[in-house]
Amino acid sequence: xxxxxxxxxxxxxxxxxxxxxxxxxxxxASGTNxxxxxxxxxxxGIGLGFPLMVFCVGMGxxxxxxxxxxxxxxxxxxxxxxxxxxxxxxxxxxxxxxxEGPAEGxxxxxxxxxxxxWVNPKAWSMALSAITLYAxxxxxxxxxxxxxxxxxxxxxxxxxxxxxxxQVRRLLKNPTRLRVFNWVMAVLxxxxxxxxxWPAG
Length: 201
What we know:
With 201 residues, the protein is mainly α. It has helices spanning 3-18, 22-34, 36-67, 70-91, 110-116, 121-134, 140-169, 175-191, 194-197.
């Protein structure tokens, strides 16, 4: 891979992971409700789970959609249902028992977060676009380069969004404000489905 191509890939990967989407909104909500340390498994699930998904897509999963187009429709339906469920959980997250105490409930585990990538509409769009643009031949080394770059940029993105949520927590010591924040995060999460359900053009 040439330096110019690597630079373009890194820029593309960074922009796609840093912009708001289901992963980032959920990390921000988790950082707010559970703090940084308890969100680390969630962060690692995204940071390692998504690049693994990119690798699998590059090594053959894309062909499933070509062979069986209905599979993409079924995937979209499952994705929408699961995102709505997660939005409901965020909206109804219990506030901390004390001003600085831990929130009730549990953040996503590493495996839950990694598995979520497979029903995350933005993750699918990112993975398919990255492979199409930067590993069109789908040879092993090119796919590994794309997946590896996503490991690096995901570390920056997951940390940044979780820290942002942790900082917001300081402004939301009032349980009522925290409930409002959680509802706003839930609505924004549902809003990420708009491009999936009503694509442009």
